[in-house]
Amino acid sequence: MLAVVSVLADIANGDGHDHMWGGGAWAWAWGAVMMVVMVALAVALIVWLLRGGARTPVSTPLDPTHEAKSILAKRFANGEVTVEEYRERLSQLD
Questions:
Q1: CA distance readout (Å), 22 to 11, 17, 34, 54, 80
Q2: Domain segments of the chain: what residues?
Q3: pTM above the 0.85 mark?
Q4: Which residues 6+ apart lie within 8 Å of 20 measured at CB?
Q5: What is the pLDDT along the chain (94 residues), one digit of tens a residue?
Q6: Which one of 6, 46, 68, 83 is most buried, by most CB atoms within 10 A?
């Protein structure tokens, strides 16, 4: 306990040991750099959030009948339509 009180007294009296980056002008310089970095990160975060964040773009197929062909293929795979019906309907979509 006495050692803790002694260390605190030395710090309060200025024991000649500057803590954190050597003190003085360097402490102010590092403080200013950290403030600029934090403000820049905050601005970048706000801009990123306003632009949509990590949203992934919705891709649309070039073929407008893509969804209909996909449904038809699933119905054929499930056995809901015959080979003839599948080919006929597919030819109508092309």
A1: 14, 8, 16, 41, 79
A2: 22-53, 63-94
A3: no
A4: 27
A5: 666 666 556 655 554 555 555 566 677 788 889 999 999 999 999 998 888 777 766 666 677 788 888 899 999 999 999 999 999 998 998 7
A6: 68
